[in-house]
Design brief:
Blueprint lengths: L7 E10 L5 E4 L20 E4 L7 H8 L7 E5 L13 E5 L15 E4 L2 E9 L2 E5 L9 E11 L2 H12 L8 E5 L2 E5 L10 H15 L5 E9 L1 H8 L11 E9 L1 H9 L13 E4 L7
Parallel strand pairs: 11-12
Antiparallel strand pairs: 1-2, 1-3, 1-9, 4-9, 5-8, 6-7, 7-8, 10-11, 12-13, 13-14
């Protein structure tokens, strides 16, 4: 059985540079455990992909559209469908002094930021430094050894995996409740201070609306226990009727695709998820 555009799958893979056999990306711990690229803080597991959605390199996306569920994949991707060819105009020679105070600290092979672009130092000498702004793997042919672990068709699995695609949490931390056409997601406390959380929530909502278009609203709930009230209730001087309250912060995202489609007769697919408005309701709610 082949996959169609928009299928959600879990893909297990290792990607290498063809001419050096260097592993540059993998979901398999054993393929990288004994190399310098091993990250002990990372959880290696199959990756969620939307087939044909542009979540991965074009060469891999194209191959998945023609893949069979039960067959292992060995995919060779040329530069034009990977990180592009090398562009000589992106290699610049600049005065070493332009790097400022850190000019004496850099070495060949270092990755530096210059003029809001990332580049690799290729040469240093005579008061000048050569910086290559091509992608590290530009001009390289890639090899993907992969297998499709499963196709995700159940809505519960879709929600869990789409939330985890953008948030660094375990499956057990994904708590939610479905109320007719509304989805309420309880966010775990450990991610409340995560950088860019509001943008992440918008991205999660867009993903869920795309792959489960029956939802009209998605609520993200953050719960903050009132520790002061809890302490008062334990005090010997506290009145007997003092209750422990909880303050909630709720962000609601509406499915504008569905709303617009119902008003003008257009299908959900004609509307981009980037148009989703975010309505923040920061009023405290009390649970009696």
């Amino acid at each position: 059985m082949t996959l169609e555009k928009g299928s959600l799958i879990l893909l297990d893979y290792t990607a290498k540079i063809k001419d050096t056999n260097e592993v540059f990306e993998t979901t398999r711990e054993n393929d990288v455990k004994n190399s310098e690229g091993f990250d002990p803080s990372r959880k290696y597991e199959p990756r969620l992909l939307g087939v044909g959605e542009g979540w991965v390199l074009k060469g891999l996306d194209d191959a998945l559209l023609n893949a069979n569920m039960d067959e292992p994949l060995n995919i060779e991707i040329p530069p034009d469908k990977a990180f592009g060819g090398r562009d000589p105009s992106k290699v610049r020679m600049i005065p070493l002094r332009k790097l400022g105070e850190k000019a004496n600290e850099i070495g060949v092979g270092d990755v530096i930021e210059l003029d809001e672009r990332m580049g690799i130092v290729r040469f240093i000498g005579s008061g000048r430094v050569q910086v290559d702004f091509n992608h590290k793997y530009a001009g390289k042919t890639l090899i993907y050894d992969a297998n499709i672990v499963k196709k995700i068709e159940n809505d519960d699995e879709k929600i869990t995996n789409l939330v985890r695609r953008r948030l660094p949490i375990d499956p057990a931390d994904v708590q939610y409740e479905i109320k007719d056409s509304e989805l309420e997601i309880d966010l775990p406390e450990k991610i409340y201070l995560l950088d860019g959380l509001q943008i992440i929530k918008r991205g999660i909502a867009g993903d869920i609306f795309k792959f489960i278009p029956s939802f009209q609203n998605i609520k993200f709930i953050e719960k903050y226990p009132n520790s002061s009230a809890a302490n008062i209730s334990k005090s010997s001087d506290a009145p007997a009727n003092v209750e422990d309250k909880t303050g909630d912060s709720t962000t609601t995202v509406e499915n504008s695709q569905q709303k617009e489609a119902s008003s003008d007769g257009k299908s959900n697919d004609e509307h981009s998820s980037s148009s989703i408005p975010v309505i923040a309701d920061m009023d405290s709610k009390k649970n009696n």
